[in-house]
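Weekly modeling sync, notes
Attendees: AB, CL, MP (scribe)

Item 1: holo prediction request
CL wants a bound-state model with glutamic acid before deciding which constructs to order. AB pointed out that an apo prediction alone won't tell us much about the pocket. Agreed to run with the ligand included and paste results into these notes for async review.

Input as submitted:
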Amino acid sequence: MSAIAEPGAIASGTPQATKVVTRFAPSPTGFLHIGGARTALFNWLFARHHGGDFLLRIEDTDRARSTQPAIDAILDSMTWLGLDWDGDTVYQFARAARHAEVANELLASGHAYKCYATAEELTALRESQKAAKQPMRYDGRWRDRPASEAPEGAPYVVRIKAPKDGATTIEDRVQGPVTVQNAELDDFVLLRSDGTPTYMLAVVVDDHDMGVTHVIRGDDHLNNAFRQLTVIRGMGWPEPIYAHIPLIHGTDGAKLSKRHGAIGVDSYRDELGILPEALGNYLLRLGWGHGDDEVISREQAIEWFELAGVGKSPSRFDLKKLENLNGHYIRSADDARLAGLVAERLEFAVSPEQLDLLRRAMPALKPRAANLNELAGNTAFLFRTRPLLLDNDAAALLTAESRALLASAHSKLDALGRWDTESLEDAVRQTAEESGTKLGQIAQPLRAALTGKKTSPGIFEVLELLGREESLGRIADQMTA
Ligand code: GLU
């Protein structure tokens, strides 16, 4: 099914369907950044909450800057975040003829006009306005000129005839009522002299044809809404409900930049090892709230999401908070899934047996990882080859005394009939008792011998995961200096 109804089927002034239709309209000039992902999420949640449709439109009219890799990255990131869209993806550039058709309708109905001002004229106009410290905008010089004055065969642009008197108020669902004096609106260009539509026209036509009822987007587009309304009103189309959400800032309050984490969604996944449900939950909480709830499942979010919960002030992006949530979701994630995600991060091709070992290691490893990189790093001991190279901290734990303890532990463990955590714990405790030391004093050198590091999951779990042969071998390797 196409997201766009046949243009001919939509009569001017058709009453708006009651079904909620939202859309996400990214310009594919780069990766899907955090702000865009949040806009997509809010549109998705609003549609799902109301049982409506969430549509996707790729605004690829800037031919020089739009790229296929950027389109692929956006679609991939949305899929990863679980933001599925209804109907086919709409590509704006492909609809240029339809945009021009609407511009011509506006011309015919007198809501737009042809402007023959030359580039030189417009530059001179701007310069004189600048010198007079006036706002720089087109002065409407062709607005009321009769067609008979049009220079024969000269190129022209089509401009909207924006209202000059009174004021326009938008009842924005996030910003509240926002009013602009119509005198501030300019007669902006709808069609360029080569016949191509401008962005301002294309957005309005596409939103209308796609049946969009709610335009939820960043508040950097609030000013555009007033201009877009002049086109909508000129066509006599139903007006969408607007919700302009505040932008995301860094923890220091400055506009989000790369140094704050304004990297692509794909980098959160690939480089930072964030789970999609953690990023989704974090983005939801960034600028939207439901009491003090921090951990919110997708199901709860669909149930609770309303525009009334969107805050009016810019939110602050905090990587620490994202990692805290990520840790939470890692702890509750399925072990087989985590094993698969970790396997992708290891530098060797993981065999089915190794994958199974990873899965079995997850209960011991996942409580202590803030991201998948840490989790993958913590699995390293499982795959090391003997004799292990100990890091400095671990090597420092091996003294003549502790090596003797390792030897005692080795003989106790070697004598075990069963290799499960319970038997392993008994054996290590007995060694400690018989040697007159505390459990910790034997656990530390064991950890060093078994993992090559000073920190690891519980020592009994490590022994069990490594298995009898490998464990005894690693201990034996360190019994003598
Ligand atoms: N393509 C615009 C952008 O990426 C969004 C336009 C809109 O949401 O109306 O900023």
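Recorded for review: The longest strand covers residues 53-58.
Action items: CL to compare against the apo run; MP to circulate these notes.
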